[in-house]
From TrEMBL:
This is Alkaline phosphatase family protein. It comes from Nocardioides fonticola. It holds the Pfam family Phosphodiest. InterPro entries: Alkaline_phosphatase_core_sf, Phosphodiest/P_Trfase, TAT_signal. The lineage of its organism: Bacteria, Bacillati, Actinomycetota, Actinomycetes, Propionibacteriales. PANTHER family: BIS(5'-ADENOSYL)-TRIPHOSPHATASE (PTHR10151:SF120), ECTONUCLEOTIDE PYROPHOSPHATASE/PHOSPHODIESTERASE (PTHR10151). Coiled coil: none annotated. Signal peptide: none annotated.
Length: 437
């Protein structure tokens, strides 16, 4: 049975890895290198997708929207001393302190919600890792056709706006595919974490800003999350985490300076948010549901678990006629397991059929490790309700961006797409989320 955890993606074969796919495209000539000075100097490679329909007025628009995802950041970690650039941007713009991630509180589904404005029962992407019934295997949701609905990236591009993605994680690069006019191939990526450090990600974002100048740029900064996952002092000092926060803030400051230097600040909207926050557990504070399921005569050998750190997605793989009884047993066993916070049918969380038959959350300070006790050794995890709170604020010099305002409006990750749509004058009716301008 496949073993996975929330830090790195699960692949069926090395050839399925998104970065490997990007390299293959480079070798076969399908990728185009931007030839401008900044990209050349930085050694930055971008892929160019087929040209969109002409839109003269859109192409000439001075408006610029930058969505910066400080992956895994907790709201309370932004301060004037540790993260002065983020703090100043939040203080000078629209601060939305009642913002939350949405189930499952993982990277891929919430990035997809940001760009689609829809919940997972519509997007088709409920978690980082699922059991794919068609393949009979656990896999990461990193394929472009995993997203079942249009994104704001495509809507803008179809109207002639330039769009770009600079995503530090291989699986994000994979799932968003060629939707943007230009996309950065994450490089260099670190082993195990399979992400590009923020210093390289921001260098790529600046190069794209200077050479391609997209109207919408979607950026994922992965260091806070990746260092948080591995921080053995996460339950106490959070040493690695704090170092990552300080450096990410420095990189955000570099990017904002580049926006100002390019003369875009007065026409810019900068949305900063996280996809989820982070929770830490001690080495032995793990929960494993698989052993309990395997001890049941009906469930043994007929349940597959997709471990998402703070959430287990459980799938009945036995006879369809026995599903109802089986799921009820799964729920009873899970609820009786120490460290389990709650159980949910996927429909109640609006996760859709890809989330399986039962979703189980762990308590704060715990983590799942399935199918075995060694599947997930990492101390930092997310996916459960403890990791719902996120920072969410909007800055920039455009007149539509509020100045020094705090609103207690309930805000979610899927509010990004309608906010961007409203900024560019597009209808927000296709979205479940709300615009905050």
């Amino acid at each position: 049975m496949h073993e996975t955890h929330s830090c790195g993606p699960a692949y069926r074969d090395d050839a399925d890895r998104p970065y490997a796919t990007g390299l293959a495209q480079l070798r076969t000539g399908r990728r185009v290198l931007i030839a401008g000075a900044a990209a050349s100097a930085a050694g930055v490679a971008f892929s160019a997708s087929a040209a969109s329909a002409a839109g003269t007025s859109a192409a000439a628009s001075p408006k610029r929207a930058y969505v910066l995802v400080t992956d895994g950041c907790r709201p309370g970690e932004i301060s004037s001393t540790l993260t002065p650039n983020l703090f100043a941007l939040r203080a000078g713009g629209l601060h939305l302190p009642k913002a939350t991630s949405l189930p499952v509180m993982e990277t891929i589904p919430n990035h997809v919600m940001m760009m689609t404005g829809q919940r997972p029962d519509r997007t088709g992407v409920p978690a980082n890792t699922i059991y794919d019934r068609s393949l009979g295997a656990v896999r990461t949701m990193d394929q472009p056709d995993d997203i079942a609905v249009p994104t704001i990236i495509e809507r803008l591009r179809a109207r002639g706006y330039r769009t770009g993605t600079v995503l530090s994680k291989e699986y994000l690069y994979g799932v968003f595919g060629e939707r943007a006019g230009q996309r950065w191939e994450p490089s260099p990526t670190l082993p195990i974490t399979e992400h590009a450090p923020d210093i390289f990600t921001v260098q790529a974002a600046i190069a794209m800003l200077q050479d391609y100048d997209p109207h919408l740029m979607f950026v994922n900064l992965g260091d806070i999350d990746r260092f948080g996952h591995a921080d053995l002092t996460g339950t106490t000092l959070q040493v690695a985490r704090r170092l990552a926060l300080a450096d990410t803030d420095l990189q955000v400051g570099r990017f904002l300076d580049a926006v100002r230097s390019a003369g875009h600040w007065e026409n810019a909207m900068v949305i900063v948010l996280a996809d989820h926050s982070m929770d830490w557990s001690l080495p032995l504070d793990f929960i494993s549901l698989q052993s309990g399921f395997d001890a049941d005569d009906l469930l043994a050998g007929n349940v597959t678990i997709a471990d998402n750190g703070g959430a287990d997605l459980c799938y009945w793989t036995g006879q369809a006629a026995k599903r109802r009884d089986a799921v009820a047993r799964m729920e009873r066993i899970a609820r009786a397991t120490d460290g389990v916070l709650s159980t949910h049918r996927p429909a109640s969380l609006r996760l859709g059929p890809n989330a399986g038959d039962l979703v189980v959350y762990c308590e704060p300070g715990r983590r799942f490790s399935d199918p075995s006790n060694t599947s997930n050794p990492i101390p930092g995890n997310h996916g459960h309700p403890a990791t719902e709170p996120i920072p969410f604020f909007i800055g920039g010099g455009h007149p539509r961006v509020p100045t020094a305002v705090k609103r207690s409006t309930l805000t979610h990750t899927y509010d990004v797409a309608p906010t961007v749509a409203s900024f560019f004058g597009l209808s927000t009716r296709p979205y479940e989320g709300r615009a905050h301008l």
